[in-house]
Every structure is written in structure tokens, then in C-alpha cells.
Design goal:
alpha/beta; 20 helices; about 10% strand
Length: about 600
């Protein structure tokens, strides 16, 4: 059973800071609150007017108003309340919709500007929940929950004052008994709801057993475990029956409580009031009003309990949102447009670089890596999975910082460059291309959103993608589908290459860019890659000979260290070389 949320001082103070997002709409909030208070106060006139109408009908009225005039009074109150409710709803809508839109935008900005390690330490579903469920909970608090909480408070406070003025004796009886009864009902009801959740959990466990045994039916048969599964299911059913019977007994007790205690308290107040009417100390209309006020106050007390829980949940959601908003971000988007662009020559050097991933400091992924790449040179990184190839790329792109050693571009430490300007000099074509779900045009322009149509067409020609794009009825406006599912693997690769060509990077990274393609697609993609690599510093991570044999230098990594380096021909000359063994193994697999 989930723990009931509570409002703490720390949580309240942290949540209070979120109010800065509704500061621009504070006058809408103030007007909405005024409409709410006035409307709620006017609502409390109805029971008194109804009672006075009853007194007037029997000739004991004190307002000097005829019975037929009460209809006009009720109509005027209803019209005023309707107008006030409209303005209240509209004002709170402005606050909640615009204010929460600002929260959502600020939250997304913070998340999208975090570093890679933050996303690796948090599930995408969790972060999405912050943007959806938590923000929606906050919006509900501003638009509904907070307003209802204040409305119930106004009703409760004004109701108590009215009852004390109408009949101090009955008010004292009501205040001593009725709130206690209502609160006890709330607590009793919450306990029963907890039992109901336990019953649902037990039923879910029973269904899980059924699903597992049916899905693994062949395994059950193979191990002759029919009796075991039947016994497991029966035990689960017995547990559910025990919980269900306890739930049923508690519901029965709750009905007894409602009938005897809750209604008993109400009837006791009614009986006491009737005795006062009989003695002539209280008009019958006032008793009628008193009973209505008592019911309204009881509802307000019950409502406050539920609204408190909702507000506590909203404060918890606000805390989680505020924790993200308080985080430092990797890139300051406010300076994004003002960043002075730089153009690298493309000299890269790794000098005695060591690295361990955050959270795994005991395992060194890279150990004393040292090599240099000259501008325009094409190098390849080769090695088994886990050797450290992708980690080298992540350090170069500043997704992580090296523990020791230095990484330089054009003779300058990479940490001394503005991060946005630095990464604008790079482009990557990964093994698995994940396109956005828009059009082909939008996906290619992602490399350079300001590109002209001529630049777009030229990029598509160089990437060998223009022919297949023009073969579609909608051409560049063709929707690629979620993650680019409507395009083939080779088509997605060529779109990614066109995107990289538009970016015009100084340093190009190709991560297994042709490994998952058939022979025909690989030829087209490889030709496009050759055009893309011309005149650029290119780093290739690949296993296929067709991709790496023409590299100026091949670095063979093993367990985080550079074991061998040289050209394709040089490495093949080493008798017991790791690279030579990899090539021979690949040739054997090709022959097979």
C-alpha cells in the first residue's frame, strides 16, 4: 500500500519557489481568488434564505420579504454566482495554462541541456514522467485543487460563524460531535481503500501466475510441473480469499458505522433542534437552515481531507520538478545564438588519457591512451566490443571528461573551447540511425537548419540520396515515420550522411556506419562516405575491411589500451598481430 503524501516545511518552501512561474499572471490569480471567495460566501446565503422562506411561509419571518420575492433573490444570487464562476474559471485557466506552459518549457530546457551521464543514470520513462505526470499534477493544483481547497475553507469558516450566530447551543453540539464523526469516517474509508488495493494486488499476482504458466506452457510440460503450478495458483487464490473476506468484514463494519454513527449524529442534532422548535426557542425554518449548513460543513471537512492529500501529492511533484530546475546544465541556451563560431583545422591529440565511467571508478576503461591525428587524416579504431573505441569518441565529443591526461584539438585543450562552438565542428554517422518522425527535409536540415535549398540538394547528391528521395511521391516532404521506420537501412544511412554533409564538420566520426547493410546498399553508402571524408579529419570505428583498409593509420585497442598501430599493410606484416588475426578470422567467415 502506497504511503500517504505529507506536506513538510522543506517541501513547502521548495514548492513555493515554483510560484515564480505564475508571477507574470499574478493579477489573474488575484482576481480569480477574489471571485472564488465572493462566490463561496454568496453560496452560504442559500441555506439561510431557504430557512427564512420557510419561516415566512408560516408567518414567522424576520426579513420583511414576501415568499414570492425569494425567487427573485435566488435568481439574482445564481446569476451573480454564474458570472463570478465564469471569471474565476477563466482567470485560473490563464494562470494554470500559461504558467504551467512556462514550467514545462523550463523543465524541458533543463533536461535537454543536461550532460550524457545524467541521461544514463535516469530512465527515459522517469524523465518523461516529470514532464507529463508531475507537471499535470501541478497544473491540477493551480487550476482546481488549490481553488477548491480555499473554497472549502471559506465554506467551513463562514458556516461555523453562521451556525454560532443562529443557535450557539446546536452549534456547540455540532462542533463537538460532527467533525469528529466525519474525520473518523474519512480515516475508516481510507483504511478500507487500502484493503481494496491489497485485494487488487493479490488478484494481480494470481493473474501473473496464470500468464507465466500459459506463456511457458512448453516448459511446464517438459518439467512435468502441472501439480506445482496448480498448487501455486491455489495458494495465491487462498491468499486472495483471506484478504477479500477481511475486506468484506471491514466494509460491513463501515456500513454499520455510517448508519449508526454518522446518520445517528445527524439525527441527534435534528432531534435536539426539533425539541428547541417545540419549546418555541427556534423557528422551524432556522432548523431547516441549520441542518443544511451542517451537511455543507460536513462535506467541507471531508473535502478538505481529500484535497489535502491532493495538495500534498502536488507539492511532492513540485519538489521533483524543482530538483531538476535547480541542476546545472551543460549548455546555456541563452548564449547559443551569441557563440562566436570557430573553424578547426582538425589536428587531434590524446596524451596519456585514462578514464573510468562515473559510478564505476574501480574499472578503468581507457589506460594511458596516446596518439595524434593530423588535419585531414583518416584513422580507424579497431577492437573487440568493450575495448574502448566508443569511449574514445565520447571523450573527444566531451560527453565525458578524462580522469587524467589531455585531449587537444588544434593544440588547445578541448575544455578551453566553448562547448557549443566546439561541437559544431563535429558530425557523427552512427551504426543505427534514429531519424525524427517528421519529413526527409526536416531530418536532413537537422544538420544545418538555416541551409538553403541549393545546399540541401547538393548534400543529397553527394550522399547518393537524391535519386531515392525523388522516387517518393512527396519527395522531400515524405514522412519517414517514427525513428525513420518507413525508410530502409541504406536510405536512413544516406539521409544521415546528407545531414553530416550539411553540417560541414572539421572532424567526422563514423561509428560502424555500414555494418548492418547489404552489399548493394553498402556500396552506395561507402561511396557517399568517401565523398564526405574528403579533406576532413575522419575517425572510423569499423570491422569491415572495405571501410578501414584505406585508413592512413589503424589503431588496435584491447582492454582499454592501444596494442598496435599502423597502416593496413604494416599491420598485416606482424606475424602474431591482433589485427592480422582479426582480418584472417573475417576472411574465414566470408568464405563460409
Amino acid at each position: 500500500m502506497s504511503t500517504r503524501p505529507k506536506i513538510t516545511k522543506e517541501g513547502f518552501l521548495k514548492s513555493y519557489r515554483i510560484l515564480r512561474f505564475i508571477q507574470p499572471y499574478r493579477w489573474y490569480f488575484i482576481v480569480g481568488m477574489l471571485c472564488l471567495v465572493i462566490s463561496s460566501s454568496m453560496f452560504m446565503i442559500f441555506p439561510a434564505a431557504a430557512g427564512e422562506m420557510a419561516n415566512t411561509a408560516i408567518g414567522k419571518g424576520t426579513w420583511n420579504i414576501k415568499v414570492n420575492q425569494f425567487g427573485l433573490i435566488f435568481l439574482i444570487i445564481l446569476i451573480i454566482q454564474g458570472i463570478l464562476s465564469y471569471f474565476r474559471t477563466t482567470c485560473f485557466a490563464v494562470v494554470s495554462e500559461k504558467g504551467i506552459a512556462d514550467v514545462r518549457s523550463a523543465l524541458y530546457e533543463k533536461l535537454i541541456c543536461q550532460d550524457l551521464s545524467y541521461f544514463e543514470s535516469h530512465r527515459v520513462g522517469e524523465l518523461t514522467s516529470r514532464l507529463t505526470a508531475d507537471v499535470e499534477q501541478l497544473q491540477a493544483a493551480f487550476s482546481i485543487t488549490l481553488a477548491e481547497f480555499i473554497r472549502q475553507l471559506v465554506i467551513l469558516i463562514s458556516g461555523i460563524f453562521i451556525l454560532a450566530w443562529m443557535s450557539p447551543k446546536l452549534a456547540l453540539i455540532m462542533l463537538l460531535s460532527f467533525p469528529v464523526i466525519v474525520i473518523a469516517s474519512i480515516l475508516f474509508g481510507r483504511y478500507i481503500r487500502g484493503l481494496s488495493r491489497k485485494r487488487q494486488d493479490s488478484l494481480a499476482n494470481t493473474n501473473i501466475i496464470v500468464e507465466e504458466s500459459f506463456q511457458s506452457f512448453q516448459t511446464v510440460k517438459a518439467f512435468t510441473n502441472e501439480y506445482f503450478e496448480i498448487k501455486r495458483f491455489s495458494n495465491s487464490i487462498s491468499e486472495m480469499i483471506a484478504i477479500s473476506m477481511n475486506y468484506a468484514r471491514m466494509r460491513g463494519l463501515f456500513f454499520i458505522f455510517i448508519i449508526t454513527v454518522l446518520f445517528g449524529g445527524l439525527f441527534f442534532i435534528l432531534w435536539e433542534g426539533a425539541m428547541m422548535v417545540e419549546k418555541g426557542t427556534m423557528p422551524v425554518g432556522d432548523l431547516f437552515s441549520f441542518i443544511i449548513y451542517t451537511g455543507i460543513i460536513g462535506g467541507a471537512i471531508a473535502g478538505l481531507g481529500n484535497l489535502y492529500t491532493a495538495l500534498a501529492g502536488s507539492i511532492g511533484a513540485t519538489e521533483r520538478i524543482q530538483d531538476i530546475l535547480d541542476r546545472q546544465q551543460e549548455i546555456d541556451v541563452n548564449d547559443h545564438q551569441n557563440v562566436e563560431e570557430i573553424r578547426f583545422k582538425g589536428d587531434v591529440s590524446f596524451e596519456n588519457v585514462c578514464f573510468s565511467y562515473p559510478g564505476r571508478s574501480d574499472f578503468e576503461v581507457l589506460k594511458h591512451i596516446q596518439f595524434k591525428i593530423k588535419s585531414g587524416q583518416r584513422i580507424a579504431l579497431v577492437g573487440a566490443s568493450g575495448a574502448g573505441k566508443s569511449t574514445l569518441i565520447q571523450l573527444l565529443m566531451r560527453f565525458y571528461n578524462a580522469d587524467t591526461g589531455e585531449i587537444k584539438v588544434d593544440g588547445k585543450l578541448i575544455s578551453h573551447y566553448n562547448l557549443t562552438a566546439y561541437r559544431k565542428n563535429m558530425a557523427i554517422v552512427p551504426q543505427e540511425i534514429l531519424l525524427f518522425g517528421g519529413t526527409i527535409r526536416e531530418n536532413i536540415l537537422y544538420g544545418k537548419p538555416t541551409a538553403t535549398d541549393e545546399e540541401l540538394l547538393e548534400a543529397c547528391r553527394k550522399s547518393n540520396s537524391l535519386d531515392f528521395i525523388n522516387s517518393f511521391p512527396d519527395k522531400f516532404e515524405t514522412i519517414v515515420g517514427e525513428r525513420g521506420i518507413k525508410l530502409s537501412g541504406g536510405q536512413r544511412q544516406r539521409v544521415a550522411i546528407a545531414r553530416a554533409i550539411l553540417r560541414n564538420p572539421s572532424i567526422l566520426i563514423l561509428d560502424e556506419a555500414t555494418s548492418s547493410l547489404d552489399a548493394e546498399s553498402e556500396k552506395l553508402v561507402q561511396d557517399a562516405l568517401d565523398k564526405l571524408m574528403e579533406g576532413r579529419t575522419s575517425i572510423l570505428i569499423a570491422h569491415r575491411l572495405s571501410t578501414i583498409k584505406d585508413a592512413d593509420c589503424i589503431y588496435v585497442l584491447k582492454k582499454g589500451q592501444i596494442q598496435e598501430s599502423g597502416s593496413h599493410e604494416e599491420l598485416l606484416q606482424k606475424p602474431n598481430g591482433t589485427y592480422k588475426a582479426l582480418v584472417e578470422l573475417q576472411l574465414e567467415n566470408t568464405d563460409v
